[in-house]
Amino acid sequence: MNVQILNCGYTGVARASKPVLDMFEQDPNAKTFPFGISSTVHTFETGDPKYKHLENKTFVGNGRFIVTQNPFSITVESRISEVIPSCDMD
């Protein structure tokens, strides 16, 4: 068995609002948020040469929180895009 590890990390910011606070307080009326509630920056780390190129790229994301009840849980879902440098001025 050949195991390959791809570590994915991210940091982000979410708009502070009453619905966001309700979610973190596990309010029973908390609901899923649409995309756009958070902006993120993603990084990748690996020892596998097949994915090593990902470590030298910039990725940004747009996220949302999916809230479920009984039991209460929060899932973070992100749409991730690679930032490609402009060559228009070359």
UniProtKB/TrEMBL annotation:
UniProt cross-references to Pfam families, sorted A to Z: DUF3237
Q: What is this protein called?
A: Uncharacterized protein
Q: Which organism is it from?
A: Talaromyces stipitatus (strain ATCC 10500 / CBS 375.48 / QM 6759 / NRRL 1006)
